[in-house]
Amino acid sequence: MKTYYLQMNSPDDLVKTAPREGLCLRVVDPPDGAVNERFYREVGQAWNWTACAEWTIPRWNEYLASNPVSTVVLVLDNEDIGYGELINRDGDVEILSFGLLENFLGRGLGGAALEMVVRYAWTLGAVDHVWLHTCEQDHPNALPNYQRRGFMLYETREGPVPETRPGT
Fold this sequence. Notes:
Number of helices: 4
Order of helices and strands: EEHHEEEHEHE
Structural class: alpha+beta
Helix content: 10-25%
Distance between the termini: 20 Å
Shape: globular
Mean pLDDT: 92
Number of domains: 1
CATH class: Alpha Beta
Radius of gyration: 15 Å
Strand content: 25-35%
CATH superfamily: Gcn5-related N-acetyltransferase (GNAT)
């Protein structure tokens, strides 16, 4: 299995896409494990996200309380369509999870949704670097979408997909 590591070293590297009418971002504050559990399960089921698949809502709440994690929900015309989960490790922001619910795939929302999540990532304090990883099991458009938004590939690894979420 190939895992691709991508990064963005400046907010100026973010490549804009056409805005999507009615699309916005809702920050989940205070953190709510039920939100993370739902989206991790529903978004990740098609892409074999397994590291946290068995977590209960109390386990999610514990994780969120003990780590600098930010969760955002993507909303289109007042309907939740996807999410992003990010962690800021001393200015090094990782997008731990990003994705759309199955009903919203293939509707041209991925670019605008990702742009919103990345813009938010750059606001999480003093940020020097935003990065993520994806793999061959992810949506076929994931890697091209990340690259179209300005992420640069800096490493490719063979082997099991690593879990970088703290506490797993």
